[in-house]
Amino acid sequence: MIIGEKGQVGEGPIKDWSGLRSKILDRLFAEDSFDVLLSLDPDNCRYISGYRSMMADMSPHYRVGVVASRDRVVLVTSAGDLAAAREVLGSTCDIVTYGEFYLWSEQEGMRSVGAHAEFDAALRSVLADFAPAPRLAIDSTGTKALALNLDGMLRPGQVIAPTDAVPRARRLKFPEEIHLLGQAAAMLDAGLTLARGLVREGATELDISGEIARLVSSRGGVARSLAITSGLRSGNVDAFATPRAFEQGDLVRMDLSASYHGYWADMARTVVVGESDQEQEMLFGALLEGLDAGREVLRGQVTASAVFQAMMARVRDSGIADYQRHHCGHGIGVTINEYPLIGPNSHVPIEPGMVLCIETPLYREGWGGMMAEDMVAVTIEGLLPLSAGPLDLHATSGMAECQ
Questions:
Q1: Distance between CA atoms of residues 381 and 4, nearest Å
Q2: What are 358's strand-pairing partners?
Q3: What is the pLDDT of residue 401?
Q4: Nearest Cα residue to 328 out of 350, 309, 300
Q5: Which of 329, 371, 326 is nearest to 354 (CA)?
Q6: Half-sphere exposure for 153 (CA within 13 Å, toward CB)
Q7: Which residues sit opposite 93 in a β-bridge?
Q8: Which residue(s) pair with 151 in the sheet?
Q9: Torsion angle, CA of 123/127/129/130, rounded to 10 degrees?
Q10: pLDDT reported for residue 110
Q11: Sign of the CA dihedral with 24 first, then 26, 32, and 36 last
Q12: What integer pLDDT is reported at residue 378 of this predicted model?
């Protein structure tokens, strides 16, 4: 999907990854007065370089870094990442490796492709290459960079300062990024449509999560959290699917996330096994009214807190008088939760370029839970829906072929 002239999402590939990186660098270096930026946060390294390491996904202790100037990006990653990183980045980004990883060739036999023994040595070599630049900014995301010992890595006279320029830049998405977010959302939309046709008495939570994971993987995405919960379990927040079989009248709450080339989607739907009752319809109708209120106010010039207040007021006025939430949504991008939070104290302006998840969950003790969550992009022309599947409680309404 790409963003067309009127802001709509359409089908089509991204062909110029280096062009997106140039735009990101221009934005980053316009946000602050530095010459070189160092980031050790895996998500921000993905954002700046364009490469997301599978090993970084698997281990919180994996070390990866990016050093960037206005016209150059160097990725510091393990030797095992070299082939995959080159496949994604080509010659548009320099790659410096560390550690041991062996390849075999007819000419050279077995050899390690690691340029340096350890991460610190690799980073030191890259920083030395950027050394003439006087002002070095360290991405303050997380704690890795702030705890980094830079002794011996810098030249005399270099100024070091922490910066939050990366998360600030990430709040607004370029069209290419909205394309990736839209692709991820389309996978979840298809997964939820498939799931609606599978919800029936005797099916299990694992049946649903397995089919959604299969569909997402078949489209080049990564299934992340697939919280399929039913019956009383539907009130369990962020719970894994189990072999529990559905029974007549059960609420089936589906809160899903997936990523596509490092960009995330987060959506939720609720359906009932069999016929819904009057109370279920009333409560869910109030939650959907809250989503409608969010969409309505997002079309104007508002703050995140104003969106929250409008959504809360609509749900209360629609039948849940004591409804309370700590937030009703969040930004999304290279992580599932990004700036801004749609909460009562988030007095930040909603700007064109933001991609948001809006949600109105309800968790009720001894009864279960239900929710609806959609993704929208804020554009100059107006609000652009990135999720479009059915929102009602009826399982059969979504039956369709999703191959």
A1: 11
A2: 329, 374
A3: 43
A4: 309
A5: 329
A6: 19
A7: none
A8: none
A9: 150
A10: 77
A11: positive
A12: 96
Question: pLDDT at position 148, please?
Answer: 64
CA 276 to chain centre: 33
- Give the integer Cα–Cα distance in Å for 53 and 261: 10
User: Cβ contacts of residue 245 below 8 Å, gap of 6+?
Assistant: 201, 202, 203, 204
State how far Cα 144 lies from the chain centre. Answer: 21
Tell me the Cα Rg of the chain.
23
The answer to whether 44 touches 164, Cβ cutoff 8 Å, is no
Residues of the chain scoring pLDDT < 50: 1-13, 397-403
Alpha-carbon distances of 155 from 84, 124, 232, 334, rounded to whole Å: 33, 11, 61, 33
Q: Which residue has the tokens 């700007």?
A: 351
Nearest to 70, CA basis, from 164, 145, 125, 135: 135
Residue 315, token pair as written in the block: 């749900």
Pairing, β 329-331 against β 338-341:
antiparallel
β-bridge partners, 98:
78, 116
Q: What's phi and psi for 45, nearest 5 deg?
A: -65, -40
54 contacts: CB under 8 Å, gap ≥ 6: 84
* Spatial distance between the Cα atoms of 359 and 237, rounded to a whole number of angstroms: 14
The residues, ordered by sequence, that sit 6+ positions from 287 with a Cβ below 8 Å of its Cβ are 315, 320, 360, 361, 362, 370, 371, 372
Q: Which of 355, 382, 373, 335 is nearest to 175 (CA)?
A: 355
Instruction: Measure the CA–CA gap between 69 and 32, rounded to whole angstroms.
Output: 12
pLDDT of residue 8: 39
Beta bridge partners of 271: 252
Bridge partners of 355? Answer: 377
| 3-state SS class at 31 | helix
- pLDDT the model gives residue 5: 32
Counting every residue, how long is the chain? Answer: 403
Calculated CA dihedral for residues 217, 223, 227, 230, nearest 10 degrees: 0
pLDDT of residue 135: 86
Exposure string over 364-373, b if 16+ CB within 10 A, otherwise e: eeebbbbbbb
d(CA 85, CA 79): 10
Look up the pTM and report it: 0.89
Among 336, 329, 338, CA closest to 291: 329
- Confidence at residue 9, expressed as pLDDT on a 0 to 100 scale: 38
- Show the tokens assigned to 164: 């939050």
